[in-house]
Structures are given as structure tokens and as C-alpha cells.
Design goal:
The protein has 475 residues and is an alpha/beta fold. It has four domains: 2-79, no CATH class; 89-211, von Willebrand factor, type A domain (Rossmann fold, 3-Layer(aba) Sandwich), CATH 3.40.50; 242-306; 313-474, Rossmann fold, CATH 3.40.50.880. Helices cover 19% and strands 34% of the residues. The protein is elongated and about 140 Å long.
Length: 475
């Protein structure tokens, strides 16, 4: 407790004159009257010879002193110092995966979740901070922590359903990080999925799960990939979603309305599975994949795959040799591989794709290239720095064509290098704060940089490695 203007307390001295005015005897004008019988108080006053009178209680005097005290204290401007307490931070997590487009809750599960999120927003204290995280497989922060309710409402209105499968674990990991462990923070999840068991131990903030959707009955085709094989093309179809109970569903492959093949896939309430069609015959430019199931969302039960014309892809590999990479390239029909020693200059012949593995390459004459583990120094639009030991993957972009059906979440790296790149490079994956996979598109061609040595990682041993190589050649 303190005073901003303590000198104003001197005004309390004005109480003295006010009290003195009540103690002074009044000087009355002399007038003759017939009797003093009705004037006992006046007679006593007249009999006193002193100018002061005895103090008598007066409500008017008390009121005047209270007014004076209020004016003085107001002029002194008292204040009190308190330690500000952190306000609550609420992170709203909105699932935008494909299943949220189901119409079992009209008009859709996503719209029902948005209505519930708006109601929760209205119930918060004005000082509470609110953040908004949305996504399906890939989480992103739509609104950083703010007290601007209108900003959050506009962001909610703009949220749309995506074609991604759901990864609630990724959404919740990002949300927990945004709370920063604030004591009164809270994560509020709006989803039709099942809350996973996060490998985070006990959450530092409460989790409030608001389920939407009357039934968990929706399967969808979330990924399709056509790859050349030794006996024809191989088609991989991934199913995701949830069903009321475990069972088997039928996936059909058609061309021109004709049934080519069918596969049964086992599904559980926690997710779907993969159907593989091997040896798809040539001659059909467009293939149709149909999931034969009656669920809440029919839009994700049918996809079309366009086949491109076959041609030879000439690939030049310059490095000390990489058996896993060469085998992955050998699985791709139409690839013609040429090997070049690290110290040899590039041949005059043009190639469709150049792969530089751990060498100080001269990429000026190359169009499309993949530079693996570039040495320290400057490259075209990027600068390679010192090594980082045992980094952990913190981000990857599954929507980019290079990483479709490729999961880098469990990638183990012994070492990588820090890279600083210009804005034309798009970061596709990071380990810690440093990028480990970058890509750009120029007039000369498309270029990719991976900052780690393939042989100092388990990437070549993962199922996604040959898919990544096939995506790279196709891209």
C-alpha cells in the first residue's frame, strides 16, 4: 500500500478550522423579550463569559469531516502493489480430417464441432488467452495465443474439411507445446476420433475431449500409389477411418467400368489397412478404385488414378556407391542408371536426373538433381554449416509429392548438417531447428537437397525409402 501524492495529506489540517467553527460561541443580537422561560439554552449561553462553548455532537460536523477525508485521500492517490497471476491459456484443437465431413450430425461433424467451439469460446473469461490448432495428419497453428475473440471466431469460420487422415497425437503434441505448461492452461479437443495414449507421460495441462458425431462409421481411401513392378504395375491403396466393429471390407479395381480385381481388407474400430493390387495389366490409361462400403461419408470411397505414358528415365549417380539407393532405382521400371566416380567431371550427355552423393558437385549444368549430404560450404541458394549429432525429426510435410506415403516421423539420424537456405527453397523436413530435406523448382528443373548421409541413418532400411525414390523420379 502506498500513496502517489503523499503531500496531499497536509490538507487534513483543514479539519481544525472546521471544528473551531463549531466551538466558537455565537454572538447574538440583544433583543428584549417578555420571558426567558422558553429559551433555556440561550440563557445559559448568555450567562457564560468565555467566547468558547462546550463541544456538542453534530451530524453535520461528522458529514463535513468525512467529505474532507474523502477529498484528501483522493488527492493523495493511494495504490496497492500486487503480483499479477497468469491468465488461463486455452488451446482449441479442431480435427479437420476427412471423416469430419460426415453428415450424421447435420450439416456435418466439422460444423457441429465449430458450433461447440464457439460456445466454449463465449464461456471464457475476457482475460483468458485462446489459441486455435487445426489439422488432420499435419497439425498447424491457425491462431496464436490471443485475447481477441473476434479473430478466433473468424478463423473458426474459415476452417474447412481436408482430405487427410486423422493424427490426433500430432495435434495434441502441438497443443501441449503452445500451452507452455501454464498452470491454468487447458487443451480442448473437438474430434470424432479416439484420444490416443500420448507418449508424453502425464500432460502438464488438463485435456477436455468434446466428441462429435453420432456414430464412428466412416472409412475412406486416403492414399493411392501406382508403381511399376516386374510383372506389371503395382497399385497400393490405403484405407483410414473408424468402424463400429472389426470386420472386412471390399476394395475394387476397375477400368472403363470393368472389374479388374478385388481385395478384402481387415479393418478395426481404431483404423483401416492397405490393399495391394499386383500386376495391373497395361492398356488402361485411367484406373478407378472403389471402396464398397456403406458409411457416413461417401465422398472418400472412390478415387481415380491416371497412368502416364512409359519412357526411359536416364539417371546419373555420382558418389562412392550406395547399394540401397541403386536397388531402389532398379525397382523403378524405365530407369537407366549411369554411375560416375566422385572426381570425374560431368559428361556432356544430358540426363533426366542427377544424383550427387556426398561430393562437391558442380550443379550449374544439371537440370533436375538430388544432392545428398553436401559438404560444408556454399551451394546454389543455400549455405551448409557444421554437423549436428543425433538430431530428432521434428517436422515433415506429408502433402508434398516427394513425401506422399512416406513417414519420416521415426527416422533415426546419426548426424546431419545445418543449412541456411534462401526463400526459394521449401523446407520439407526438419530435425531439431535445422532443415534436413529441401526442394525448389526453377526454370532449369527441380532440385532436392538432403543434408544427411543416407548410410548414417536408417532411412534406406525403412519401407518408405523406395517410395521416396520413386516419388523423386516421378517428380
Amino acid at each position: 500500500m502506498g500513496l502517489i501524492a503523499p503531500a496531499a495529506l497536509a490538507l487534513f489540517l483543514l479539519a481544525g478550522p472546521i471544528i473551531v467553527l463549531y466551538l466558537l460561541k455565537l454572538r447574538r443580537e440583544r433583543r428584549p423579550v417578555s420571558s426567558l422561560l422558553l429559551w433555556p439554552a440561550a440563557r445559559a449561553s448568555l450567562q457564560a463569559n468565555r467566547p468558547w462553548q462546550r463541544f456538542r455532537w453534530s451530524w453535520l460536523l461528522l458529514l463535513q469531516l468525512l467529505i474532507l477525508a474523502a477529498l484528501v485521500l483522493g488527492s493523495a492517490r493511494p495504490f496497492r502493489v500486487e503480483t499479477a497471476q497468469p491468465t488461463g491459456r486455452n488451446v482449441l484443437v479442431l480435427d479437420t480430417s476427412a471423416s469430419m465431413g460426415a453428415a450424421d450430425v447435420p450439416p456435418s461433424r466439422l460444423e457441429a464441432a465449430k458450433r461447440e467451439a464457439r460456445r466454449y469460446l463465449e464461456s471464457l473469461h475476457p482475460d483468458d488467452e485462446v489459441a486455435l490448432v487445426v489439422g488432420g495428419r499435419q497439425a498447424r497453428v491457425l491462431v496464436s495465443p490471443t485475447r481477441d475473440r473476434e479473430l478466433v471466431r473468424r478463423a473458426l469460420d474459415a476452417v474447412k474439411v481436408t482430405a487427410e487422415p486423422s493424427d490426433l497425437g500430432e495435434l495434441l503434441r502441438l497443443a501441449v507445446g503452445i500451452t507452455g505448461g501454464v498452470g491454468r492452461g487447458r487443451v480442448v479437443l473437438f474430434s470424432d476420433g479416439v484420444v490416443p495414449n500420448l507418449p508424453l507421460g502425464r500432460l502438464p495441462v488438463p485435456l477436455d475431449f468434446r466428441p462429435v458425431g453420432a456414430r464412428g462409421n466412416n472409412l475412406g481411401i486416403t492414399a493411392v500409389q501406382l508403381r511399376p513392378g516386374p510383372g506389371g504395375d503395382d497399385l497400393f491403396v490405403r484405407l483410414d477411418g473408424s468402424v463400429p466393429q472389426a470386420g472386412r471390407v471390399l476394395v475394387k479395381l476397375l477400368a472403363g467400368g470393368r472389374l479388374l480385381d478385388a481385395r478384402e481388407v481387415a479393418v478395426t474400430p481404431e483404423g483401416g489397412g492397405v490393399a495391394v493390387f499386383s500386376g495391373v495389366p497395361a492398356g488402361e490409361d485411367v484406373l478407378e478404385v472403389v471402396l464398397d462400403v456403406n458409411d457416413d461419408l461417401g465422398a472418400d470411397n472412390r478415387v481415380w488414378v491416371a497412368r502416364s505414358g512409359r519412357q526411359t528415365v536416364r539417371v546419373l549417380y555420382q558418389g562412392r556407391g550406395n547399394l540401397f539407393l541403386e536397388r531402389a532405382l532398379g525397382l523403378i521400371r524405365g530407369v537407366e542408371l549411369t554411375r560416375l566416380a566422385p572426381d570425374n567431371p560431368l559428361p556432356a550427355d544430358r540426363f533426366d536426373l542427377y544424383i550427387f552423393d556426398g561430393v562437391a558437385a558442380r550443379v550449374e549444368g544439371a537440370g533436375n538433381w538430388w544432392w545428398i549430404n553436401p559438404p560444408a560450404g556454399a551451394g546454389p541458394g543455400f549455405e551448409v554449416g557444421p554437423e549436428v549429432l543425433f538430431p530428432e525429426v521434428t517436422f515433415f510435410d506429408p502433402e508434398h509429392p516427394l513425401l506422399r506415403s512416406v513417414d519420416l516421423g521415426n527416422l533415426a539420424l546419426a548426424r546431419t548438417r545445418t543449412v541456411t537456405a534462401t526463400a526459394e527453397w521449401r523446407v520439407l523436413a526438419t530435425a531439431g531447428p535445422a532443415p534436413i530435406l529441401l526442394a525448389r523448382e526453377t526454370e532449369a528443373g527441380r532440385q532436392v537437397v538432403s543434408t544427411f548421409n543416407l548410410q548414417a541413418s536408417d532411412f534406406p532400411l525403412q519401407p518408405g525409402f523406395p517410395i521416396f525414390v520413386a516419388n523423386l523420379v516421378a517428380w
